[in-house]
Amino acid sequence: MTPYPVHYSVRRAPRFARVQLLVRFLAFALLGALGLSFGTVFALAYVALPLLAAVRLASLGSPKLYLRGDGPRIARALHWLAAFSAWAGLVAERLPAHKARETCSFVIDPCHPHPSAGSALVRIVTGLPSAVGLLLAGCLGVFVWLWAALTILFTERVGAGAHHYLVGVQRWSVRLLAYQAGLVDAYPPFSFTETLPELPAGAATAGR
Asked: What's the Cα-to-Cα distance from 41 to each of 2, 82, 137, 151, rounded to whole Å?
């Protein structure tokens, strides 16, 4: 199988602090009071990224200028979003202190995409099958998250199976958002599987 050019990995923490679990619940309660959720943030990013790409591509008039100028900034923003989502999703134990790579590894291989303003807008529609698949996986992921939260409460650990599933949901989401932003041409696979070995914490990432 040809490796997908977007790679995401998080090492399973040997221990999760119970107090961090309480902080997560408080963060969710605060977001809920504001009428927000991580699902809402993802939905906004799903629509906003292709719109931003279309506007920038139309104004710059060159895919190369967009990818060289805007591409790294968008990749860094996606890396930070992935890092916060990893913490909220019980994939990572702590929020990053200084750099997103402290929490997760997010790499986009050089793949020479050819985005255009028109193709960026079309991705709002063409990305829907992947978004629906992700939604279904995420609905099941709620129960996996609750199970992981219970295991943290009693054992301060997340099981390997739960970790694999929750990382897979995160991996699918960042692949889809990178596609929506026009950073890759290949359609995101309907898969949780990483196509490269797990990357070490100090590996070069798209979000340096």
From this structure: 30, 12, 17, 27
